[in-house]
């Protein structure tokens, strides 16, 4: 059932169509049975054919990028923002006023407190009145709110992997009082397509480094979700790393758990009906490759003997379950479609 549509198919606009998140949205939406790409906005490639800019799409798309002032965004049913942080918040209010629903892949609407947003993103929020309305777009946590939302804040890539890893423990009240620890590694596409010395092949390959240990902007986002799940503030140590691969996040997450609980059963029960979370058999070690190109989080739960800790391994493709795929999953929910529409395909391996 397609609800609340302006036309027969969901007319989609993408702002930031030339970035990694935008490109991945194009790839997914071209195959979506109920969506039609209506306009693709780019400043740098305005006027250019999409398949000239991205030759891998030759024969798949007959459209040109447009400047924002030429794009018919108000005719869209939904507009995805795949732009840097702080861009969407200047354009969203006018689109909402025109009955356009929004899915923002950036962080503009993820944090509820405008002061926290300003602290981590370095500028005052342009429309703080919308922060409490926005639905945090992690379906496994917030499905009903997403269904009814006109504004969805798609989660960050690290938060998706980390929250899904801890969610069953927190919901069941099993994580002890000690700090939760998330030790996460990302492929380089997480940093976007913009030129930066740190992202050169020569800097990344044969190399492995942590960054922003003192505080990454995904920390308040993850903590906000934990507060919502467990209804109490939790200490979290979050250490991101960049590894020499293109796609993928691997989060190794630690929590203190006491008592003889069947954790495998807790995880399997929590995610039993989730189409995009796969709890692996006991003793498994999920690989980023096993989720490459698909909207899936694979999780394995370990309890090393005599450690008093649980180790949860969680892998996603940062561009799919960590960004564009999750955004399409949210679109499906917002428009009353089966949640898996356009998202049923197999991983790419090797
Ligand atoms: N990469 C990832 O794994 C993930 C990214 N995200 C978030 O999604 C968003 C997009 O990320 P990603 O695709 O990697 O980023 P990229 O840097 O690859 O792409 C950004 C896009 O935004 C456009 N853009 C840049 N500046 C502006 C501006 N001031 N106004 C309008 N458009 C602008 C660029 O196109 P042009 O210059 O042609 O206009 C480009 O298409 C970011 O907020 C990111 O944090 C979230 C989860 C995962
Ligand atoms: C490897 C790498 O650099 N990753 C990015 C994460 C990108 C992302 O998801 O950030 P947003 O919250 O802005 O959407 C980073 O750490 O900044």
UniProtKB/TrEMBL annotation:
Residues 11-149 form the Semialdehyde dehydrogenase NAD-binding domain. It is found in: Cytoplasm. InterPro entries: AGPR (IPR050085), AGPR_AS (IPR023013), AGPR_dimerisation_dom (IPR058924), AGPR_type-1 (IPR000706), NAD(P)-bd_dom_sf (IPR036291), Semialdehyde_DH_NAD-bd (IPR000534). GO terms for biological process: L-arginine biosynthetic process. This is N-acetyl-gamma-glutamyl-phosphate reductase. It comes from the Bacteria. Its EC number is 1.2.1.38. Catalyzes the NADPH-dependent reduction of N-acetyl-5-glutamyl phosphate to yield N-acetyl-L-glutamate 5-semialdehyde. It catalyses: N-acetyl-L-glutamate 5-semialdehyde + phosphate + NADP(+) = N-acetyl-L-glutamyl 5-phosphate + NADPH + H(+). Its main location: cytoplasm. NCBIfam families: argC. Belongs to the NAGSA dehydrogenase family. Type 1 subfamily. Pathway: Amino-acid biosynthesis; L-arginine biosynthesis; N(2)-acetyl-L-ornithine from L-glutamate: step 3/4. The keyword Nucleotidyltransferase does not apply. Pfam families: Semialdhyde_dh, Semialdhyde_dhC_1. The active site is at residue 157. Coiled coil: none annotated. The keyword Oxidoreductase applies. GO terms for molecular function: N-acetyl-gamma-glutamyl-phosphate reductase activity; NAD binding; NADP+ binding. It comes from Acidihalobacter yilgarnensis. Keywords: Amino-acid biosynthesis, Arginine biosynthesis, Cytoplasm, NADP, Oxidoreductase. GO terms for cellular component: cytoplasm.
């Amino acid at each position: 059932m397609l609800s609340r549509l302006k036309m027969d198919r969901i007319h989609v606009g993408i702002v930031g169509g030339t970035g990694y998140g935008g490109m991945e949205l194009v790839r997914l939406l071209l195959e979506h049975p109920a969506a039609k790409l209506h306009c693709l906005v780019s400043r740098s490639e305005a006027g250019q054919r999409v398949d000239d800019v991205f030759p891998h799409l030759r024969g798949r798309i007959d459209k040109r990028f447009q400047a924002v002032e030429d794009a018919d965004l108000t005719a869209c049913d939904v507009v995805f923002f795949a732009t840097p942080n702080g861009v969407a918040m200047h354009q969203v209010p006018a689109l909402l006023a025109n009955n356009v629903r929004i899915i923002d892949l950036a962080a503009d609407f993820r944090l509820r407190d405008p002061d926290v947003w300003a602290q981590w993103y370095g500028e005052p929020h342009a429309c703080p009145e919308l922060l409490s309305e926005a639905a945090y777009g992690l379906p496994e946590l917030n499905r009903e709110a997403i269904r009814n939302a006109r504004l969805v804040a798609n989660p960050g890539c690290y938060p998706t992997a980390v929250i899904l890893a801890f969610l069953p423990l927190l919901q069941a009240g099993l994580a002890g009082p000690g700090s939760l620890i998330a030790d996460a590694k990302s492929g380089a596409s997480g940093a976007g397509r913009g030129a930066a010395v740190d992202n050169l092949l020569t800097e990344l390959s044969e190399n492995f480094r942590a960054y922003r240990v003192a505080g990454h902007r995904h920390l308040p986002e993850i903590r906000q979700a934990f507060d919502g799940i467990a209804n109490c503030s939790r200490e979290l140590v979050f250490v991101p790393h960049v590894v020499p691969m293109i796609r993928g996040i691997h989060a190794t997450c630690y929590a203190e758990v006491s008592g003889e609980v069947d954790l495998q059963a807790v995880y399997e029960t929590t995610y039993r009906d989730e189409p995009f979370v796969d709890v692996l058999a006991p003793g498994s070690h999920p690989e980023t490759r096993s989720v490459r190109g698909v909207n899936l989080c694979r999780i394995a739960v370990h309890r090393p003997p005599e450690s008093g800790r649980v180790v949860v391994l969680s892998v996603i493709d940062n561009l799919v379950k960590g960004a564009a795929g999750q955004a399409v999953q949210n679109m499906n929910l917002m428009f009353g479609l089966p949640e898996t529409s356009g998202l049923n395909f197999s991983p790419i391996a090797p």
